[in-house]
Amino acid sequence: MRGLLSFQILWLLSRKPMNGQQIAQELAQRRGSKPTPGTIYPALKELANKGLIQPNRTGRQVVYKLTEEGKEGLVDARRYFIQVFGEIFEEEYGQVC
After folding, report:
1. Are 64 and 48 a contacting pair, CB within 8 Å?
2. Which of 42, 58, 62, 79 has the least CB density, counted as fewest CB within 10 Å?
3. Which domain does 30 fall in, by range?
4. Domain count, the chain
5. Does the CA dihedral 58-60-65-67 come out positive or negative?
6. 28 compared with 87, residue with greater pLDDT
């Protein structure tokens, strides 16, 4: 799995299934800028190809949901990010979030 965007997508989909536009809007609220379709859809395709998310097409709309492999991937990604960035949070906030 590549980077923060994939991690954020998995985290969002762990909350509820969403379509690409909803994911982009949620990311915009958290980041302050909305990712472009050229950023979000390749990431969704990569996650789907790895079996971490499942796209479900209804007409023209595709809703993505986390798979069991995606849930495991999210746990692994959390561990990785805590390992890599935990010290930064600990220094700033006195604890790992």
Report:
1. yes
2. 58
3. 3-93
4. 1
5. positive
6. 28
The model's pLDDT over 27-50, given as tens digits with 9 standing for 90+, comes to 999 888 899 999 999 999 999 999
In what helix (H) or strand (E) does residue 15 lie, and over which residues does it extend?
Answer: helix 3-15
58-85 tens-digit pLDDT = 899 999 999 999 999 999 999 988 888 8
* Nearest in space to 46 (alpha carbons), one of 70, 72, 22: 70
Strands 53-58 and 18-19, by their bridges, are unpaired
Q: Which two tokens stand for residue 97?
A: 């979030």
For the stretch 25-61, what's the b/e string if a residue is b when 16 or more beta carbons lie within 10 angstroms of its beta carbon? Answer: ebbeeeeeeebeeeebeebbebbbeeebbbeeeeeee
Q: Which residues contact 63 (CB under 8 A, 6 or more apart)?
A: 17, 18, 19, 55, 56
- Predicted confidence at residue 97, as pLDDT, reads 57
**CATH classification at residue 69:** 1.10.10.10
